[in-house]
Amino acid sequence: ETHAASAPDAAAPAAETQAIGEDVAAIRDLILAKLKYSVGKSVTAASPHDWFVATALSVRDKVVESWLSSIESSKRTGRKRVYYLSLEFLIGRLLIDALTNMEMIDETRAALAELGVDLETLREVEDDAALGNGGLGRLAACFMESMATLSIAAYGYGIRYDHGLFRQRIKNGRQLEYPEDWLSFGNPWEFQRPEIVCPIGFGGHIDTETRPDGELRQVWHPGETVEALAYDTPIPGWRGAHINTLRLWSARAVDPLRLDQFNSGDHIGALMDRVRAESISKVLYPGDTTPAGQELRLRQEFFFASASLQDLVRRHISLYGDVRTLADKAAIQLNDTHPAIAIAELMHILVDLHDIPWDEAWAITQATFSYTNHTLLPEALETWPVPLMERLLPRHMQIIYLINALHLAKVSGEPDATGHRLAALSLIDESHGRRVRMGHLAFLGSHKVNGVSQLHSDLMKTTVFHDLESIAPGKITNKTNGITFRRWLKEANPALTSLLMEVVGDNLLDNAMVLEKVAALADDSSFQERYAAIRRANKMTLARLVQQRIGVKLNPDALFDVHIKRIHEYKRQVLNILEAVAIYEEIRAQPFRDWIPRVKIFAGKAAASYTTAKLIIQLANDVGKVINSDPALRGLLKVVFLPNYNVSLAERIIPAADLSEQISTAGMEASGTGNMKFALNGALTIGTLDGANVEIMEHVGSPNIFIFGLTADEVEAKRSQGINGQDAIARSPKLSEALESIASGVFSPDEPHRYRGLVDALTYHDFFLVTADFDAYYNAQRAVFRRWRDKPAWWRSAILNTAHMGWFSSDRTIAEYAEEIWNVPVTPPGRK
Ligand code: Z16
């Protein structure tokens, strides 16, 4: 056996090393067995992907071991369960995550090394599970990990999309979308559950029947039924103490094919029903903050909400025998309004299928559900046309009408119940055709409604939910987002994690607040040196990746200024590009001033239908092309756009960032979570007082963050005076010059007017207040430069960022949900 020959034969090892040696040998043998018997390959024929599958299956065995005990123990102890309903789970890769949380990573790396296989190579061949658009989906993934870490008996419920978020390619500076195909090589993490199938009805009609007790009952006869088939993925918490389930539903036709039709020669027609049914779980909608509005999207929402509720009600009844105790044993969290139809579905199940009286059913529903809001953008709030609802979900539409009638009857008695107020409170928006307001439904059907940062939660009360809050004071609560430190510190930045553990101890990932101890070393020059060396190594790694992917050479000693997130006007990538253009022109005018070498790194996808966002991508690429090839700059400024931003790319970029761009128009970014990942890894933030930036400033201290620009209140005041940019442009020579060069085609010589419309919009109709904030942003960037020149001051700030970010662990966020919304206990992890 070749692998036996390559085993190191060093001097007699210490006892602990010997135990690890035995582990390594056992893991190595298990991987070899998986490769042979589960993958069906020999060592000599195995590709890196084969090795990846064999390794994944070997760690999966350990995961399953604990998974089954977790399920058993939740059952035995009658624990209340948490159900996290989300149309998106942006998980990324799982190999390193599973190995980390099962505490097998060093042994597995060593076992593979004995086989001549490099774990980092296997890491890279795994496809990202990209079942989400951005922050909302990634938050769901962080929450799943933290719920397992805190031993909460939780299930994630969502859709097993055949195709996740599109792959982005850049051609001639423009975004092109290609289908993503994460399942094409199989998925070693999931278990199909062919026995768990739920029928999902659409359309049809409703009959009224008389029950034996004389009461009336509504019976829905769907016109069409599809099946929801379950696939389970185990989600290990830190140290593997508890493992939860992510259950994703795949759509399937009731009849696989119409055999009569097939036999009569109509081979395509025989498959039509199947294609129609299975289209429901085919593809993730790529809009982040704009609702899709199509019938297929509503079918997706009902499909997974109904399957999940049928599944959890069935589980509850089989455990406890009585659906009326549901709220004692189940908490259902709605991740945005996407699953809000679940509220009507639970009423349907309770009232129509279990004969529970309406008022009691409504009390159970409200006690069970809670709802998280992720945006205030009015155009982003989901509404469905009443005629579509009536056609697709006739019984649910009746239920919504009844909820609304009882709700409006309650408030119409109040003295301030004007028509205007009732219209604002109604579940039906009558202003442009009749539409069902899903946010209102989620609000009414829940006992708690939360925002995702303090500022956002406060604004919810004065904007979209102002009227509803007045009839339910105290229902709105804040739960500031968080991130899992296992992925975003240890897996993304293992060298920094080791350094920090030397200081705070190896319980850093059990209790992130111990990071505070690092603050004492912020001025320690030898610690600063080690911290800076790790950053530099991460920048070298990223520079190699950039060279490979887009052929641009980066200077690792330049300031890496990073702006990565979905492309959206409110996130103001344009503000950043304008600053790059302004500095470009200054360097050309005075090439030999003491410029700071800087690299602007952009990455992010634009919704395929969002024309302006796609134009912004093109602008970033066009500007980069001119700047990167201008010899007059002597490499002092580079602008790169990295294609196909996803979770695994974020894991590479964030640990290499010096500066984190969080520059949304104040009041528009609900929270942000990338902001937290950067600050934890020691990038300084340049940002507005928006979303969680406010709380990051409070924790890291205002000297250690570069805050600029209008506040949310000032944005509102300014907008009410008009959004013409001409004054701001006239007052700022740098801004006028930058706009002028973009508008005149300096960066688009092949099509000089390409950006005329964009510049005109900023000039005459600047809704996102780019022009109003330009000078403040420009000045904040100069403050960044001054700090960068003073290296001890820079590293002091960076270290203090890391030290004070413990509070932003999603363990803290989840502990708050558990205590204040779900009423379930948590058990913090700890060393075995
Ligand atoms: C999304 O990712 C978010 C909001 C939304 O309405 C839809 C999607 Cl797909 C984001 C917010 O924009 C961001 O500020 C927040 O941090 C994130 O949700 C998680 O709460």
From TrEMBL:
Enzyme superclass (EC): transferase
One GO molecular-function entry: pyridoxal phosphate binding
Family under the similarity heading: Belongs to the glycogen phosphorylase family.
Name the record gives this protein: Alpha-1,4 glucan phosphorylase
Cofactor needs: pyridoxal 5'-phosphate
Lineage: Bacteria, Pseudomonadati, Pseudomonadota, Alphaproteobacteria, Hyphomicrobiales
Catalytic activity of the protein: [(1->4)-alpha-D-glucosyl](n) + phosphate = [(1->4)-alpha-D-glucosyl](n-1) + alpha-D-glucose 1-phosphate
N6-(pyridoxal phosphate)lysine: residues carrying this PTM: K677
A Pfam family annotated for this UniProt entry: Phosphorylase
